[in-house]
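ENTRY TYPE: protein
CONTENTS: sequence, structure tokens:
***
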Amino acid sequence: AALTVVTTKTTTTTTSLTATTTTTSTSSSTTTSTSSSTTTSTSSSTTTSTSSTSTTTSTTTTTTSVSTTTVTTTSFISSPSNNLYWNQTGVIVADHFDNPTSLYFDGNDNQYVSDRLKDHVEQWSPNASAGVTVAGSATGAAGSSSILLRNPDDLTFDTNGFMYVADNGNNRVQRFLPNSTIGTTVAGTTSQSTSALTDLSDPVAIDVDENSNVYVLDRGNRRIVKWGPNATSGTSMISNSLLSNAYDFLLSPTSSNQVYISNEINGVIYLWTFGASTPTLTLANVYSSTSTLSKPRGMAFDSYGNLYVADRSDNWVVMYCTNSTDGIVIVDSSSATPVIGSLIAVAFD
């Protein structure tokens, strides 16, 4: 699998995920034993062994042991979760954006990037040298018709392959059928911003469950609302002033009534239960309290349920292993190549 991050340096950088393997492993042990009996006889033995292997790291127990490990990657960050190393050398897979805000990979490794200032969504096929506009205007024209967008902020897909776009400037969510550039409004009222449940105000993030229910971070109204299929109004699931500073949210992979919310101003991630007045859990620690998140933005889950957070200010990607409240930096601008900065979004192919 590969981890892909979006930066505001108009590049999208992929770093590869490598299993923990040992290129060179050497161990040595020395054992000396002496025995005697009443017939006054003494025997002694010394055994020295050395072994070399190219398999995964193993553990042995001896009286005295020395082990060394060399990994072929010259620069890496280790992670205790699933015994993986993260390669710090990335590959630029898409560029020339004005303001990329979100990232998504489909099952064929096509990546989709919403470009807020170009008012469209681009699709980049594997190894492509240029993107193809799949929603909005290829020339960057903004508008409110069914074929145009205005400042798209987020995108996602449902299980049927339909694409959903948070059309922020038009205060709506648009759904696009496969191979179609004509959008249908599935949440909000075009170009209308009120606190009524028929409307949205500053929709910045969206997610869709397996039943095609659309969840919207309605930041201007400080709430997360749920819109069922063919609904004409939403249902408020969470309402709190803390959401006025939220940037992204994700449905929990282990619970049908909880979401993870990134709060950029407060520098935290909230785990929030629908209907609750306060967060269930707050994530902020990095490296066991020696550091904290600064400006967390986009988030993603891997197949193991670990949470990954793009921190815009600290220029790193932090992983929170399942059931852990201590984050681990797995991609860092100080060691990554090419240089990454102002991280906005993160995704897996």
In short: The longest strand covers residues 24-36. The CA atoms of residues 80 and 321 lie 9 Å apart. The two ends are 6 Å apart (CA to CA). The mean pLDDT is 82.
